[in-house]
Structure formats: structure tokens, C-alpha cells
Design goal:
40% helix, mainly alpha, 0% strand, 58 residues, 3 helices
């Protein structure tokens, strides 16, 4: 969580995953969006919870 976000980071226009659809598809969409800014694993992990909602977030 201490890793700073890249300069110019903006929230994604990605439907948040709630656990009712294909998780692999969500991961693919998520990594594609993050990789527009960076491919650092720390950033992928830090931002991932923002792509979830409902039961998937809990």
C-alpha cells in the first residue's frame, strides 16, 4: 500500500466485479487497464480492491 501510484493515474472505466460473472474475464480486463499505466505487481495489488464490490469485495 506504500507504493505510490504512477503519475497521471486515473480511475478505470471498468465494471466492478461482484462475484456473479467469470472471474477470469474480470482479471483480464483489470490487468489490461492497469497495464496502460504500469506493469508493477505492487500497483496491480494495491488497486485491485477498487475493482471489486459486494460479496467479491467482502
Amino acid at each position: 500500500m506504500e507504493t505510490p501510484l504512477p503519475f497521471g493515474w486515473k480511475p478505470f472505466h471498468l465494471d466492478r466485479y461482484d462475484g456473479t460473472t467469470d472471474p477470469d474475464e474480470h482479471i483480464d480486463l483489470y490487468t489490461t487497464q492497469v497495464n496502460l499505466y504500469t506493469n508493477e505487481d505492487a500497483i496491480l495489488c494495491r488497486v485491485f480492491p477498487t475493482s471489486l464490490k459486494g460479496a467479491a469485495l467482502n
